[in-house]
Design goal:
By secondary structure, the chain is of the alpha+beta class. The chain has 6 helices and 14 strands. The chain is elongated and about 110 Å long.
Length: 441
C-alpha cells in the first residue's frame, strides 16, 4: 500500500532525525555544564570577597569607637578604599556570573525553539497524512485492495498518527510554556545586569572620591596631628553655630499639623538591605553630647561608605544637594529629599554619591544614593529625617555661621519632625536600644 510505504518512510525519517540530534544535545549538555562550573566558581569568589569585606568593616567599626585623630582618620580612609575595591570586585564577579547565566539561558532558548519547530513540523506532516487518508473513503480503499491485512494496517497507522498529533500538541504546549518562563528569567537577568553595571560605575566614582578626600585631609593638616585637632575644633564650632541658626529658623515656621493627612501603620520600607541602628530619634544620651539642641532630629543607621540607599516608598524627589559646598561639615553633606505619596517626606543625609535628581519620580526600593561620611558626621552612616509633608519644604537662606553664604536644604517646622521607626516595618531593639533586628510586617 502507498500509504503504508509512506508511513514507514516517515518514521524512518524521524529515526534518522533522532540519530542526527543526539550529538547536538550531548554537545549542548557539555556546554551547559561548563558554564555552570564557571558560575559556581564565581559564587565561590564572591563568598571569599565578602569575607574580606566583613573583615575590613570590622576594622572600620573598631576605629569608629576610638578618639578622632589624624592617624585614625587616615587609616579609616585607607580601609574604606580597600573595602570599596573589594566591593567593586564582588560587583564585577556578579556581572560575570549574570553574563554566564544569560549565556546559559540563551542556549536553553535556542534548544526550546528548535524543539517547538520540530513539533510544529511533525504536526503538519501528520495532519497532511490524515487529510490524505480521509479524502479517500474506506469503501474505495477496500475495493481497490484485496489485501485486508494491509487495509487494517493502514487503519491502525492512521490511529497511531492521530495519537502522535495529540502527543506532539501536548509537548508543544509544555515547551512553549517553558520557553516563555525562560525568556522572562532572561529579561530579569538582563535588567539585573544593567543595575550591576550602573552600581559598578558608581562604586568606581566613590573610590576616586575617597582618594581625593584623603589627599585633601593631608593637604589641610600637612600631616600634622595638632593641625588636625585645630581643624576638627573649628568644624565643631561652625557646626554648632549652623545648627542653632537652622533650629531658630525652623522654630519660626509655625504650622498646625493635620493628623488626618498622616498615614497610619508601617507604610515605609527599610532604606538599607541590612539594618543596624546607631542612634534613635529625639533626646538620647548621644544627642545631648553631639548636638547643641540636645535632640537628634532623625535616626542613624550604620552603613559603610558606598552602601546603596533606597527610597522608602513611591514619591517625588523634591531636592538634592551638598551642604558641604556652603558650610563644610556643618549639616547633611550630600542629601536627597523625597516627598512620598502617603503624606510623609524624608531626607537621606551624609551620602557619598547622589543617584536621584530633582523632580524625579521614584518607586519604593529604587536606589537614590550611596551612604557616606559627608557633612556633620563622626563616621560613615546614613541619617534619615522624617517629616509630615504638609510642613516640610526645600529652602534657601543666607547663613551668618557660614560667612553669609547661601545654603539650600530641606527644612520643616519643629513639630513636623517624626520618628521614622514608627512607620518602618516591625523590629526588635536589643543591646541597649542599638541593634535593630527587623521582621516582616
Amino acid at each position: 500500500m502507498k500509504f503504508y510505504q509512506t508511513f514507514k518512510k516517515r518514521f524512518g525519517f524521524l529515526l534518522l532525525g533522532i540519530l542526527l540530534i543526539i550529538p547536538t544535545v550531548f554537545s549542548y549538555a557539555q556546554t551547559v555544564q561548563e558554564i555552570q562550573n564557571k558560575i559556581n566558581q564565581k559564587d565561590s569568589d564572591i563568598q571569599q570577597l565578602e569575607k574580606e569585606i566583613a573583615a575590613y568593616q570590622a576594622e572600620i567599626d573598631n576605629l569608629g569607637q576610638q578618639k578622632s585623630s589624624l592617624s585614625s582618620s587616615l587609616k579609616q580612609l585607607d580601609l574604606t578604599k580597600k573595602k570599596l575595591t573589594a566591593d567593586i570586585a564582588v560587583t564585577q564577579n556578579k556581572i560575570d556570573k549574570t553574563n554566564l547565566k544569560i549565556q546559559n539561558l540563551s542556549s536553553d532558548i535556542g534548544v526550546k525553539e528548535n524543539s517547538i519547530n520540530n513539533n510544529l513540523d511533525s504536526i503538519k506532516l501528520e495532519i497532511r497524512k490524515i487529510n490524505e487518508f480521509e479524502r479517500k473513503s474506506l469503501v474505495e480503499t477496500i475495493l481497490s485492495n484485496s489485501d485486508f491485512t494491509m487495509i487494517w494496517n493502514d487503519v491502525d497507522n492512521i490511529i497511531t498518527v492521530r495519537e502522535k498529533v495529540r502527543e506532539n500538541i501536548k509537548n508543544l504546549k509544555v515547551v512553549k510554556s517553558e520557553l516563555e518562563d525562560t525568556r522572562k528569567v532572561t529579561i530579569d537577568a538582563k535588567n539585573e545586569l544593567t543595575k550591576l553595571k550602573s552600581q559598578l560605575s558608581d562604586q568606581q566614582k566613590i573610590v576616586v572620591q575617597n582618594t581625593n578626600e584623603k589627599n585633601k585631609l593631608l593637604k589641610q593638616t600637612k600631616n600634622n596631628e595638632a593641625n588636625y585637632q585645630k581643624l576638627l575644633k573649628d568644624r565643631i564650632a561652625k557646626r554648632d553655630a549652623f545648627e542653632k541658626e537652622l533650629r531658630d529658623y525652623e522654630a519660626q515656621l509655625q504650622f498646625i499639623i493635620d493628623p488626618s493627612k498622616l498615614p497610619s501603620g508601617r507604610v515605609l520600607s527599610w532604606p538599607l538591605s541590612n539594618i543596624f541602628i546607631t542612634q534613635l530619634f529625639g533626646k538620647t544620651v548621644d544627642s545631648k553630647r553631639l548636638y547643641a539642641s540636645g535632640t537628634h532630629n532623625g535616626v542613624d543607621f550604620r552603613a559603610s561608605i558606598g552602601t546603596p540607599v533606597m527610597s522608602m516608598a513611591d514619591g517625588v524627589v523634591m531636592g538634592v544637594g551638598d551642604t558641604d559646598a556652603t558650610c563644610y561639615g556643618a549639616s547633611f553633606g550630600k542629601f536627597v529629599f523625597i516627598q512620598y505619596n502617603n503624606g510623609l517626606s524624608s531626607t537621606f543625609g551624609h551620602l557619598s554619591l547622589i543617584k536621584a535628581y530633582e523632580g524625579q519620580n521614584v518607586k519604593r526600593g529604587d536606589i537614590v544614593g550611596y551612604s557616606g561620611n559627608t557633612g556633620h558626621s563622626t563616621g560613615p552612616h546614613l541619617h534619615v529625617s522624617l517629616y509630615a509633608s504638609q510642613a516640610a519644604k526645600m529652602a534657601s537662606k543666607a547663613s551668618a555661621a557660614c560667612d553669609g553664604r547661601v545654603y539650600r536644604l530641606p527644612v520643616a517646622s519643629i513639630n513636623a519632625y517624626l520618628d521614622v521607626l514608627s512607620y518602618l516595618p516591625s523590629y526588635t531593639l536589643t543591646k541597649n536600644l542599638i541593634n535593630a533586628k527587623t521582621t516582616n510586617d
